[in-house]
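Input sequence (312 aa), recorded before submission:
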Amino acid sequence: MSHRPIILGIVGDSAAGKTTLTRGIAQVLGEEDVTVICTDDYHRYDRKQRAELGITALHPDCNYLDIMQQHLSLLRTGQPIMKPVYSHKTGIFEPPQYIKPGKFVISEGLLGYSTRGVRDCYDVKVYLAPPESLRTKWKIKRDALKRGYTEEQVVAELQKREPDSEAFIRPQRQWADLVVSFYPPSDSEESNGYLNVRLVLRPNIPHPDFTQIVNFSIANPMPAIRLGLDRDMGKPVDVLEIDGHATAEQVRELEKIICDEMPNLWSFCRTEGHPDIGRLTSTTGEVIQSYPLAITQLLVSYHMIKATQAYQ
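Predicted structure, token format:
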């Protein structure tokens, strides 16, 4: 078991940004070493059946959670699986895929922390929690462009899903090691894709020593990178915030803090060495570089590397 795969969980509601976050993490860790699976493939019913039964894909009864747990347990021990495949575009199931785990496994989806057995499969757990207004905007854009829905259909589906989001998706936040919330600056509309990020750092796992950021804040009365204390779901946490207008120099200082504990891995740590990290498409279709996204992807990758070292 000294070389078993390291498994990352990324959980969040539909269109919360799971795939965007995953893409950059895989780029940092090395795509040839990363196996990505989507737990939404474990739906029990296709789109037509769900409509007939009056159940949403967010409800546990609509998913084979026992098989998902079994498969994650097999991947954790380095064994292959025959994974089901659900097409979000067509709403039907496709032939299963033979999946052999790489050095790292990223499992993203809606109900990834829904049972204790599933949660025990992960080395690092991330929960995505953008403001609902922003998630709605992202979902309308994605489902209209990629899945052929009208805006009215997407809004109606969101309203139908809301009770299950409240009951089954959002409570999973409590199990995460990191809670990631991208949000518009100054509570305004998204500024052409340049969002701030709020990172809740739970003491479940050891995070980099970000206390140096306090010194940066003292020197600058309006810092773009801030560290503070707060409570999340009733428990004390550290909170790291990065503004969308943070400069490259400020980001390099933060990058140095993250990577100082791994001096032999600076090629992994340098964000400029990974062209896709922090990249996203703005509302106008422009490809931009988001430093908050890049640091988030780098921090999660850091925890994956640290988990690897713990088992060597």
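Checked by second reader. The chain is about 35% helix and 20% strand.
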